[in-house]
Structure formats: structure tokens, C-alpha cells
Amino acid sequence: MAGQLMHAGQARRNAGLDLIKVIAAFGVVVLHFVGPQAGSGNAVIYLIAAFSIPVFVMVNGYFVLNKRGETRGYGCRKAADLLLLCLLWSVVIWCLFSMANQNMGPWGPMGGLYVFFSCSLQRGDASILWFLWMLAGLELVSPLIKRAARKIGLGSIAALFGVVCLCINIGSCVLEARCGHSIQDVVPQSLRIWTWLFYFCLGGYLGRSDVKKRTLSQGAVPAGITFLIGSGGLIIWGYGVRWALWGMDKAEYLYDDPTVALMAVGLFVFCDVGCARLVESGHGARCIAKMSSACLGVYVLQVPMRVVFRHYYLLDNPILNILLVPFVWGLLLLMTLVLMRLPGFRWLVKVGLFSRLSTRETTVS
Questions:
Q1: Which of 32, 73, 124, 236 fits a 20 to 30 Å CA distance from 331?
Q2: pLDDT at 5
């Protein structure tokens, strides 16, 4: 089974983590196209999709922090790969915008660099690329985390950052209730290092062999219950209080909230342990793996897609928005799979994190 522990020298594709990435990619499309302002139902769906980015980071930590045989400069090289990927996508997106608007932007022919640097602070039409800057930062600090984990344990590090997230979340709630602002208002997502280190270390902890033995013995039911508890808490607390009473209208403000952490952990373990058994064999596993390899393209191609939709449609119809989400996700997935047949575009996706790690599992105790 996909959750089975690998012996030394063996590698096996983890179908459960492939499924996690596909679900998370769909969740990211929900975040950008469901239109939370269109109605209460859309807002609830939007907030529930807040697990998407955290579980992407957990998948990264699952592999990076449990990978053996890395040299000292390995993290630096992977960070450089991610920044190169971000730069190339910035140039592609700038070219698309220039052709559509016939405007090369404030930096003229060097507009790709402008997009590259502005997205690091989550600014501009290509702000969604902040995610690659964040991943590059996690790659750089991963050797330090591994060194600390050998002394105090990866679970202790994850718990430490979890406490930091909880404290910041409490502070944000107080600010939202008293003055209508939040800590996240002044700190862009790419710089919320406490949040991403928590999920990064949490994913690494769940990938350790001793932890996997315990999750395998418990099965998928407790993980599914954990996800449902987190979802219910998010609807009551995230929507009923923070959204309805305090005006918190962005899912990114909830990444530090315990309800989202419960959802992310529940979904992660449920897929890794339970769902992997259902899709591991036959055409199902191959189909999931192919979709998983296209996740990065789906993520990035949303940028021009969002610009096009904002120009023609304001996402103000609640029913149409909900129907639009699977259509957009399927269209982006199809576009990526078709474009991946082109050698240049395939390399542009393959150099990225999700295909380069390829969800082949190697665990350490």
C-alpha cells in the first residue's frame, strides 16, 4: 500500500500524496473563483478551501525533511531551482499581459523582473507566485531544521511553531474584534514564516516512519473525523464569528487558526493512509499521478485565467460561481496536460517542486 514504509534503497510512488496535491490544487481554484462575496454558501465553501495551501506545504515538508543523502548545498540548489522557476513564469505571465494590454509595464522590456520581484511581496496581477518564493525560503532553512530535529525532535519543532501560530492567531482575533484589522494585514503571505515553518515541520513529522506506523495502525477513520471537526469549527468560528461579526473576509487570515490546522492534518493523514489504498492500483493510480504532475501548471495558469474572468465576469452569481469552479479546474488541468507535451513547457513544469519530488516516498525514523 502507498502508506507502507520503504526499505533502504527502495522508492515507491505515494498515491495518497498524489491525491492530496490534486485536492489541494482544486481547493486553490475554489479560493480564486468561488466568489465569497456572492453569497453565504460561497463564503463557507471559500473558507473551507483554506486548507489548500497548508497541505501543499505539508507535502513539501513530508519529503524534504525525510530525504536522505543530501549534501550541504542541496537546499540552496533546490531554492535556486524554485526561484528560477518563479522568474521564468514571471516572464511568461508578463509576456501574456503585454500582448493582451499592449503595455510593457513600468520596467519596459525588463517587465518580467518587475513581476518576479513584486510577487515576492504578494503584489501585482501575478501575486499568486509568492508561493514559489515561500517554498524557496523553506528549502534554504531545511538543513537547519534537520540539524535541530536531531537534537530535540521534529515533533517538538512543529509544536513550537504551532504555539507561535496560536499566539499570533489570538492576537489577530483581538485586533479584528477591536479595530477591524489583523496582523496578516501588514505581513504578506510570503513573509509569514512562522505559519509555513509550522506546516512544513508538521508534514515532515507525519512522514517519519515511527509516526507512519501509528497512523497506519489507527486507520483513516480518526483522520476523517479530525477533518470534519476542523470543518465544523471553521464554519462556526471562521464564518459565524470572524467573517460575519468582525469582517474577516480572506481565507489566508485563517492559516494560523487551529480549525484549519485540524482540517489540514485530517485530510493529509486520511489520504496518505486511507485513500491511497483505493487509488493505488490500476488506472486510478496512474490517472491521479498524471493529474498530480500537472498541479503546478494548474496553480500558475490561474493568473491569466483570473485576469480574463475579471474582465468579463465579476463572479457575482453564487450558483454560477460554484459551477464555474470544476469547469475552470478541468480547463486548467487540460491546458497543462496538453502544454506538457511541448518540450519547453514540460521542462518549465518539471523543474518545479511537485513534479521534481514526484511523490516517491523515502521515510526515516
A1: 124
A2: 38
Please tell me the predicted confidence (pLDDT) of residue 353: 45
DSSP notation for 269-280 = HIIIIIIHHHHS
pLDDT in tens, 110-125: 888 888 998 888 887 6
Q: How far is CA 319 from CA 39, 52, 191, 199, 284, in A?
A: 9, 22, 35, 33, 30
How many residues are there in the chain? Answer: 365
Secondary structure in 3-state letters for 326-356: HHHHHHHHHHHHHHCCCHHHHHHHHCCHHHH
Residue 88 has pLDDT above 60, yes or no: yes
The DSSP symbol for 7 reads P
Q: Dihedral, CA atoms, 120, 123, 125, 130, nearest 10 degrees?
A: 30
Instruction: Please give the sequence-ordered ranges of beta strands (E in DSSP) within the chain, or none if there are none.
Output: 12-13, 360-361
What string of H, E and C letters represents the secondary structure of 135-195? Answer: HHHHHHHHHHHHHHHHHHCHHHHHHHHHHHHHHHHHHHHHHHHHHCCCHHHCCCHHHCHHH
